[in-house]
Amino acid sequence: MASSTVSRVRRHLPTSPWLFAAPGLLVVGVFVLYPFVSTLVNAFTDRRTLIPGRFVGLANFRELLHDDMFWIGLRNSALYVLGVVPALVLLPLLLALLVQKNIPGIGFFRSAFYTPVVASIVVVGLIWVWLLDERGLVNSLLETIGVGRVGFLSDQWLLLLSAMAVTVWKGLGYYMIIYLAALANVPRELHEAAAVDGAGAVRRFLTVTVPAVRSTMVLVGALSSVAAFKVFSEVYLMAGPDGGPAGEDTTLVMLVQRTGTGLTGRVGYASAMSVVVFVVTVGLMLLVLRADRKEEA
Amino acid sequence: MRISRRTFAAAAAVAVVLPLSACGSGDDGGGSTDASGKVEGTITFQTWNLRANFKSYFEGVVSDFEKKYPDTQVKWVDQPAEGYADKISADAAGGTLPDVVNVSPDLVAPLAKAGLALDLDKAAAKYRKEYLPGAWASHRIPGMTGTYAFPWYLNTGPLFYNKSLFKDAGLDASKPPKTYDELFADALRLAKKSKGEVATLANVPTIEDFGRYGVELMNKEGTAFAFNDTKGVELLTKYKELYDAKALDPQVLTATPESSGKKFLTGAVAMNPGSALDLGNFKKQAPNLYKNIGITDQITSTGKVNMYVMGVMVNSRSQRKPAAVAFAHYVTDAQRQMSFAKKVAIFPSTAGSLDDPYFTKEDGTDETRVRIAAAASLKNAVNYTPVLFSEQMKTALRNEVAKALQGKESPKAALDNAVKACDRLLQQQG
């Protein structure tokens, strides 16, 4: 009797965790895994929105190699990483140092710096478009001081730089909060010891603060590089659905959206591009983490 | 019950293979084209951003139809303008396309090719004579036989211009340009007089511009594009001159219809296409502009303006085809189109409707003047947008036009590239 109870318990025990996990697994399966696997499979077909595809092997990937727009998208996404990530690793740290001290009214500044994070990206994009327009506030100011109007939204490179500036402006507050948490864990004694040894503010920053928050910097670098490579909204809102003049500001994700949607969308081809985005972002993550591990060693 | 590795592997395999099952499983057949039988059952009717302004009109149409056919029920759904094509494509791909759908010819083409649009030449031929022949033909697809939507309302927007900007440049504000040659001359003069401060247009040439300039857009068979001919190159070369002279807005290469409209509102550009609906906006948002507003016909060198056509399509896989066809016809018949035209600045596609005094008699107001001029121009208007010209093709053309305007490519090379890209996309559409 006792042994049969034990065997029954053994038989049933493993089921329970699965039952508890089932709702979550179902959601993850349907909304995460299935679309992911579906994208992988579609990448090897010539599927279109309304017409089921046939297996075409590596044809989509071969076509990507000869697609000028793909290379433009890849270039712009890579440039975005190079332009945005260093700024998003350093500036929020400096900002966090500024607002770290508990002085009267500091809460206002912390909230002000965090406001762009919670603002809708569409609203943010529209505001910056108004500011940077040929007849917008920034150009009016530049004209007043004799610089003349600058084509922030009409020049290929200035447009990309403007979009990067918006990404940095919007992301500062988010990473600042992460750094604030990390800075709170830096022992005060280290700073005090360095100060006793005669280290100035810059030296204390380089020898005490930076090493103490290095792992947070790696995390911020990894998160911001993946987000930067997948940028869509800022460029879409500022450069328009075509991706700037002659599509020269198109990023990879914009290209995926443009290629794969609509009644005549090339779902298979867009999926192949998505696979490239996935591989590059995973690669970026691994690269950053590997670099971190090497330094630790 | 232990979940063994084998079970897990099998589940993973199913997850991988499941999406593959979608490949090749589609049914290209559009189902039966027989729409005879009793008009009964519940159908869904989808419109394109019409609920906000015409709720009571459509509720009336639905209620009248249900009274006429007591065994029917119509569920009216309206979708916003933004992303309408994406909504249709998601529904079409997911098998949830409504029974009756408001479409434009370029939306009908891929749906018809996928076998989702009912051929009305077979299913509803008896209604054909009620519509203008050109309107009925507007939903035919090159390379296919049949007509795939009832023609609904037609539209042809006027061109607005800022009289005071014209006067400042020493131009006669009572004689706006009518042809492209006149437009180019006036635009260069406006730019010169304002030292590049005032542009005439805030949009680059579209496929409709090529059509109105007299360029042959496609070959006769509808199998390849042809807008890279001498005339097409000539048009783009002239636009390049305008761009260099700052007669086009500096941000023209990233412009959208909305941004162009705003530029016109602020007086940064002198001319902008629009519709009679815009007059109300000008009155409200830019009273100074409204005082100086000039209204003229679309620029055309062919003598024929561009006409936009709306249609009502019947889903070929509808389970209630007789009711769907009857309702699609009901919404688009002469009586309903006429009453809709009196609510908004659109024009009926039904035979004889444009001869109604509403479209021919002046009453001294600007709105009536626009309406009468537009109705008159519709009689020989052309829908210059090829029905097979997809969104991806529009982007390809805009990108190549931008390269030509920036001087990165010659107009000829840019148009050759655009035609090549569009032909490739056309072939991929199948």
Automatic annotation (TrEMBL), chain A:
Pfam families membership: BPD_transp_1 (PF00528)
Keyword Secreted carried by entry: no
Membrane topology label: Multi-pass membrane protein
Protein name stated in the entry: ABC transporter permease
CC annotations in GO: plasma membrane
Keyword Transport part of the UniProt annotation: yes
Compartment(s) where it occurs, according to its Swiss-Prot or TrEMBL record: Cell membrane
ABC transmembrane type-1 domain ranges (all copies): 74-288
Transmembrane region(s): 18-37, 78-99, 111-131, 157-184, 205-229, 267-289
Family: Belongs to the binding-protein-dependent transport system permease family.
InterPro entries for the chain: ABC_transporter_permease (IPR051393), MetI-like (IPR000515), MetI-like_sf (IPR035906)
GO biological process, one term: transmembrane transport
Entry keyword set: Cell membrane, Membrane, Transmembrane, Transmembrane helix, Transport
Location, primary (coarse class): membrane
TrEMBL record, chain B:
InterPro entries: Bact_solute-bd_prot1 (IPR050490), SBP (IPR006059)
CDD domains xrefs: PBP2_TMBP_like
UniProt KW Signal keyword: yes
Keywords: Cell membrane, Lipoprotein, Membrane, Palmitate, Signal
Pfam families: SBP_bac_1
Cleaved signal peptide residues: 1-22
Name of the featured protein: Solute-binding protein
